[in-house]
Amino acid sequence: MAGKESEYDGALDSDSVSDQSFKLEDHSTHPSTTVNAAAGGLEITCFSELVDDATCYFQIIRFPKQIYAWIGCNSTKFGDLYAAASTRPSNTVGVTSILGGSSDNTGSGIARRLVLKTGLNIILACSIPKNSPMLEANAEKKLMEKLISLGYTQPR
What we know:
Helices cover 19% and strands 38% of the residues.
């Protein structure tokens, strides 16, 4: 998918929001925006960070029992989409690729570790270059720092 646009790439550029009342909050630790939807229990957080000389963009949508996260590096392309969840009875994590990618790509490992750290189901869209393991690790670290600051991780 590198270099070509898919029909999903424009999904994150949409400025339209329907039928919800939103409240903007200022978080001074990161240049981010958090939007709360009163009725559905949604919380949307968007921020960007400079990671290993690349600008990474993050979006986190907190649903009642799951988290959607998007990571884009040097672009706002949607990237590959993964779903991850705990399995029973062994409490391991299963990950599947929904759009693009395969189970051994960059985003699948991040999605697996997010499930382990949050205890929630994860939907992750990721457009991190595949040949940048340090960028992947540092982008995941920034995402986890934000999830911890928002209180989305489970206590140890």
